Amino acid sequence: MRFSLFVLLSFLILQTNISVAQQDSIKSKPFYFYKAYKYGTQGVYNPLTLVLNAGFDIYQLEEHNRQLFIFPYGKSAYNTFWNLGHPKLVIDEIGWWNFIGSEIIPTSFDSKKGQWVPNYFLHTIGGGMTYRMMTEWYRYHKVKYPEIYSFTTVMGTFLLNEIIENNGYTGHNSDAIPDVYIFNLAGVALFSSEKVSKFFSEKLNMADWSLQPSITLTDFALHNNGQYFSFKLPLFFKQRLSLFIRLGMGSLAGASWKFNNGTALSLGAGVRSGSRYLTDIKGRQVSITTPFSIGIFYDKNNSLLASVQVSNVSDYFICANVYPGLLNIGGFSPGLWANFDMRGYPTLGITTRYTLGAGLGYNFRKPL
Predict the structure, then answer these.
(1) Residue 340 pairs with which residues in a beta bridge?
(2) 20 CB contacts (<8 Å, ≥6 apart)?
(3) 216: burial class by Cβ within 10 Å (0-12, 13-18, 19+)?
(4) Residue with more model confidence, 142 or 103
(5) Global pTM?
(6) How far apart (Å, rounded) are the C-alpha atoms in residues 213 and 227?
(7) What is the structure's pLDDT at 1?
(8) Under 8 Å between Cβ of 363 and 219
(9) For every residue of the chain, which 3-state class applies, written as one string?
């Protein structure tokens, strides 16, 4: 949890004084992904929501324990860093060709050999875009050396993600090795390019459409968190109509229609990440089940305002979010979310921009 304290400390020094020359530099550089809108996902984006959404992303898996204060952080961190410190020993055990063929080179779409899919699309493209967007966030808030702050924030979040995924396991675990040493760094290098960032921003309309992380009362569990990315590829014959893709812990594809006022309605169908299972005991290579899912999304200027997703999973059967900026109650615009399991029991929550995008909730579910 030390990294979370670092993020909060970073937020408190946002008003660092900078020179006029630096201010001019900030204004002259383009902002490809962070637009500083006061509504939707843009309005609640900051280092804290990044840590909760991306660092604890694996919490979304079906029936995963979400309680923050009973997780074996020390044991998981030790095992993660031990494996990162002994990559050759770990890879030797599972076999180099098996490791390369499933993690690095796209050799198969089979779930047992398809770990390269999230490595390329989430760790490289998603991670690279996250680095660029967080750099722009720090730059917008006039923090000195935004690239350094962003790299520290993002890489720390990625390491936290690997620690949470380890989940108390002791032994050889190859999962973090390609992520940390290859794909996360490749993403940072890729999106350090102006041309690459401009292409994904302006041609593919890539955006961060993450959820609204909240801690539920009584059990101190993290709910409604998860990092997601959206893409809209305009069709040449109809500029209002776009091919729509949403990636994260699951993939949806469909269509998006843009209205005259800048809002858009998107519909996608596909799969959601279900539960983890071992594909190879050696090196603890894992994969994830992919139950069917469908979602509808409403955004303004590519900043998500509301969404509803229905998935064939027992816990987050229905996941609904309304972000700050859509509803106004006497000048106050909260974010609201509700998740229902297949038995009909809800988990409800509220978020605000004044709490750095994080919120509080209450879990009404009863144990099976």
Answers:
(1) 318, 346
(2) none
(3) buried
(4) 142
(5) 0.88
(6) 10
(7) 46
(8) yes
(9) CHHHHHHHHHHHCCCCCCCHHHHHHHHHCCCCCCCCCCCHHHHCCCHHHHHHHHHCHHHHCCCCCCEHHHCCHHHHHHHHHHHHHCHHHHHHHHCHHHHHHHHHCCCCCCCCCCCHHHHHHHHHHHHHHHHHHHHHHHHHCCCCCHHHHHHHHHHHHHHHHHHHHHCCCCCCCCCHHHHHHHHHHHHHHHCCCHHHHHHHHHHCCCEECCCCCEEECCCCEEECCCCCEEEEEEECCEEEEEEEEEEECEEEEEEEEECCCCEEEEEEEEEECCCEEEEECHHHEEEECCCEEEEEEEEECCEEEEEEEEECCCCCCEEEEECCCCCCECCECCEEEEEECCCCCEEEEEECHHHCCCEEEEECCCCC
Q: Would the pLDDT of 279 be above 60? A: yes
Which two three-digit tokens encode residue 27? 């204004």
Query: Identity (one letter) of the amino acid at 201?
Result: S
Which residue is associated with the tokens 């993690």? 103
